[in-house]
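Morning. Coffee machine broken again, so started the prediction first thing and wrote up yesterday's gels while waiting. Chain of 421 residues, entered below exactly as on the submission form.
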Amino acid sequence: MSVDVTRLENGFRVATDRMDHVETAAIGVWVGVGARHESPRLNGISHMLEHMAFKGTARRSAEAIVNEVESVGGQINAYTSRENTAYYLRVLADDVPLAVDILADILQHSAFDAGELERERAVILQEIGQCTDTPDDLVFDQFQEAAYPGQALGRSILGTAENVRGLDRAALADYMAIQYGADRMVLAASGKVDHRELVGLAIDAFGGLGALGAPQAEPARYLGGHHGERRELEQLHLVLGYDGLAYDDPDFYTMGALSSLLGGGMSSRLFQEVREKRGLVYSIYTFSTAYRDGGLFGLYAGTGPDEVRELMPVVMEQLAAIGGTVTAEELARVRAQLKSGLLMAMENTRARAERLAQHLLIFGRPIPLAEIVERIDAVDSAAIDRLAAKVFAGAPTLAALGPMGENESVAGWAARASAAE
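Came back before lunch.
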């Protein structure tokens, strides 16, 4: 593995992770701007901009973009998160110059054609409708909003239908101009790539892009709360969570171990106790989401309306039972899970490019694999006990979507969750 990073004069960063045993390259631009950088009125614009970037430039039509990529056997895609937006391709090694040219074109010369905008607006409205019709997706948006009420971090990445209908070409062009600065971007590539050649391509393609300074976002303020919505569904979808940790927290990898211990796979405590022994759920797992200045720790469960009364106390018992009970076997298992997930991802060119870009955006440097493994190995049972006591002593957030009995309420479950702590 050979990682190299170069910063251009305008602050644009070029990073490569060379893999000589492959014949392809994953290459993309990661922009350190996402949904949390939007005002309420513009909520959803980062995601719409990501869609519109593929819909034509000053010298390429939407059809030409995909034809150029797919005619050489390449793949092109993008995504929007709360803190980043990514545009990436996977191509044969000889087609890296084409990939850079297309990325530079869509990120600096998008046309935002009126006809394409109306068509893509309709597509995004369907995407919002699909999320609304998918309860195990929607409940996470409701959970996020309850955890961060009245904040950009609590708003949906997709935005509201009302906002999407109101966003026009001028709004998109202005947002790109004020947010997509050279110093907020990383061109990252992994696979069969030559760093010096990529730097040369980047200078030609992105060297004229201006710098804008660090993007501004309101600080994360976890408040916690609850949200419930009764729907005629077969399952009740629950998300229970707590204030979590930022990327740079010293306990970041301890949080990963805690999540793995409780709900990371079929051998985890929650899966074994809640599903295997009691049959109270079809699905249950934990998650840990980090941001630059905060995070969330939580669990998802899909259960029946008759099982939820027993489910909640059992879950709270499992959370409360961490202290002093982590065995040597469990500790070895969670360390192995964290390391295997990391190492398995290193076999994928796109995952490696993304990891490299994210490290540069978050930490300002690529973090060596050995350093991460060392931090995972340093997690011990005392650290897990200490972190669990801290996290679960905080105010819970609970979101529930689905069938609920007349005498059942999310407010009541949230109150019992708070009392259990």
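The chain has 16 helices and eleven strands. Going to sketch it on the whiteboard this afternoon.
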